[in-house]
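Reviewer 2 asked us to include a model.

Predict the structure of this chain.
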Amino acid sequence: MEGLTFFTDSTVNMPPSLPVMLEKAVQWNYVCPHTHDFIEVVFVAKGSALHTHIDQSGRKRTNCLIQGDVFSVQLGEKHWYEHGQSLVLYNIFLRPAFLVRYPELRELPGWERFFGERASVPDTIIHFSAATRRWGILALDRAVAETQRREPGFAMIMTAQILDFLVTAMRSPEMERPEVYQDRFCILQSIALMEEHPEQHFTLEQLARLSKMSVPSYTQKFRSALGVSPMRYLLKTRLFLVQHHLTTTNLSIGEIAGLTGFCTADYLIKIFHRELGLTPIQYRKQREVKLKK
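Predicted model (structure tokens):
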């Protein structure tokens, strides 16, 4: 490919003694076509961009990225970014020796998608929900801080945080999303807005206007891309966040309702029970019991 840039592990400051490293960086609105002699896992922490990826078989995928997306670039594959808007990425750099060191990763459902034969998977991107994204950022920020301080034992802590992130990304089928191309970029931007501000009251009219579409066109394209209606997707996003707060905080049901767009505790309890078959308190107690086992 004309103008292709080649990056080595030394380009990204990977010490010879470490099989893994990462960085967090704001990206330019255009990143030139490039390849590298290491494996890369990319987590979109903020913003959006158009991403083109060519695998070893020559298959070309062009996807619209939004915050929460995670994907990998294998050895020798080519990729680049265009039309970046406030794009912030976590880039995890892996030598093949890292995957050899942790063979348990092969047992996870996402192995083929991230590190296996590209020809056997229909798409290569997963999407973290808002709750999972917040946790992922905390984990990778800890890893970044360790690499910057380089205090004794930093490599073990950094590696543990990265493994935690990779296992989470590779084991959950709930994080899958279809490939969405440039003509539906506006759909992803509306999804990002819903996930970033689940506490806000959104209407179909507002979301369609943001996407520069009529309500029927927006609804049809959203359902075609995601398999559910916009309001159903928003509800699922809010419920994922409720479950996150129930299992990771001591917030009251009323406080959680205010943070997740349900407004009142009574309304949250009603919807939660209708969708999951138990109350928020029952869910919290159930999770506490599982964690103690």
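The CA atoms of residues 128 and 214 lie 28 Å apart. Residues 130-149 form the longest helix (20 residues). We have added this to the supplementary material.
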